[in-house]
Structures are given as C-alpha cells and as structure tokens.
Design goal:
- By secondary structure, this protein is α/β, with parallel strands linked by helices.
- The chain has two domains: 103 residues, 3-Layer(aba) Sandwich (Rossmann fold), CATH 3.40.50; 88 residues, Formyl transferase, N-terminal domain (Rossmann fold), CATH 3.40.50.170.
- The chain is built from six helices and seven strands, in the order βαβαβαβαβαββα.
- A seven-stranded mixed sheet has the order 3-2-1-4-5-6-7, sandwiched between helices.
- Helix 2 links the parallel strand 2 and strand 3.
- Helix 1 packs parallel to helix 6 and helix 5 crosses helix 6.
- The two termini are 20 Å apart.
- The mean pLDDT is 97.
- The protein binds glycinamide ribonucleotide (GAR).
- The site of glycinamide ribonucleotide has 17 residues, from helix 1, strand 5 and helix 6.
C-alpha cells in the first residue's frame, strides 16, 4: 500500500515538485494525496493541478483568525489521512494544537545548517542573505521533525556545501535548493520506512 503524503507550501513549490516526481517514478513508496497552501497565488498550486492532486488554500484572507485557521488546517489534513506531512517551503509558524494533532508525522525542510540561521525570522532568501553577509564558508540544508518550537526538532538529514568566493544569495539559493530536493526525498524514504 502506498503511504499517504500531504504537502504544505507557500510559494514556488520546487520541493513539492521533487516529491511528486519521486512518487510518480516510484523512488518513494508513497503518493501525494493533497496540497495545502497559505497563499492563494502560490505557483505550487498549479504544480498540484498539473498532476491532478487536490489542493486547498487556507490563508489569512479566508481565515483571519489564527485559531480558526489552525482548526481548518487540522480538519483539512485529517480528511487526507496522511502518513506523513511535509512542510515544503510553508512559511507560517504552526500552532502547538496542530503539532499535537499530528505528532511525529510532520517534517520540514530548511535552507540552512540548523541550528545556524534557523528559528523565527530566518526563512527563504533571508537565510541566504544572512549567510553571505556573515562570510560563512559553509551552508546547506536540513530536514527535521517539527516540534512545538521553530526549527528545533530532531534532524533527519543535513547536507552542506562550500560557499563560493563570488557567491550571491541567489546563486546560493539555487545550489542549496538542489541539495534540498535530494535530501527531502531521502528523508521521506527514511520516515516512510520507519528508519528514523
Ligand atoms: C525552500 O528553500 C525551503 O527550504 C524554504 O523555502 C523554500 C521554498 O522553495 N523554507 C524555509 O525557509 C522554511 N523556514 P520551494 O517553494 O521552491 O520548495
């Protein structure tokens, strides 16, 4: 039986695409059963459509109250009966009720070597800008379980790269994304095969 994977996104969805492709080519023993975005204009929603995957928008506009938004998220995910929930560029901090509802089933991909450049305020391009500004020799990506704090859960896989001398935040983002796409699939496999 294929495992059921739900993916939460906020933007372009290249990590979502990597998960869809890995499922379709059977590199992962699972299927993406639903996508949720907190942004109505996220390009990742189009990626879900392209693969006939149902998607939902649960945003600040349709659920301005945070508690109601969390309830809607929980309800929507419960209906998908997921074995695994993947935060793939989902840029909203989740409430403890949400984490408790799906404990040990939620993983997140983060574009830095956690614990560096992680936690509140570090997301997306902001991470790469900070790494370049600090003159770091290394950066990378981390997949970890989600607990009730930001970017603190158990690390599943982390992979690093050397920051080039002429690196820009944009070039770093691109190189880190390549790592993300790879370690996200490896981490999903570990979780679905109960190897973590
Ligand atoms: C990725 O780099 C992901 O690591 C990051 O957002 C990007 C989403 O790209 N997530 C965070 O910063 C979470 N704190 P994508 O939409 O192309 O997958």
């Amino acid at each position: 039986m294929l495992k059921r994977i739900a993916v939460l996104i906020s933007g372009g969805g290249t990590n979502l695409q990597a998960v869809i492709d890995a499922c379709e080519s059977k590199r992962v023993p699972g299927q993406v059963v639903g996508v949720i975005s907190n942004k109505a204009d996220a390009y990742g929603l189009k990626r879900a459509d392209n693969h006939l995957i149902s998607s939902h928008v649960i945003s600040r506009s349709n659920y301005p109250d945070k508690k109601e938004r969390t309830k809607a998220l929980i309800k929507s995910l419960e209906s998908m009966k997921p074995d695994l929930i993947v935060l793939a560029g989902f840029l909203e901090i989740l409430q403890p009720e949400f984490i408790r509802a799906f404990s040990d089933k939620i993983i997140n991909i983060h574009p830095s070597l956690i614990p560096k450049y992680a936690g509140k305020g570090y997301y997306g391009m902001k991470v790469h800008e900070a790494v370049i500004k600090a003159g770091e020799a290394f950066s990378g990506a981390t997949v970890h379980f989600v607990d009730e704090h930001v970017d603190t859960g158990q690390i599943i896989i982390q992979e690093s790269l050397r920051v080039a001398s002429d690196e820009t935040p944009e070039s770093l983002q691109k190189r880190v994304l390549n790592i993300e796409h790879k370690i996200l699939i490896e981490s999903i496999n570990k979780c679905l095969r109960s190897e973590v």
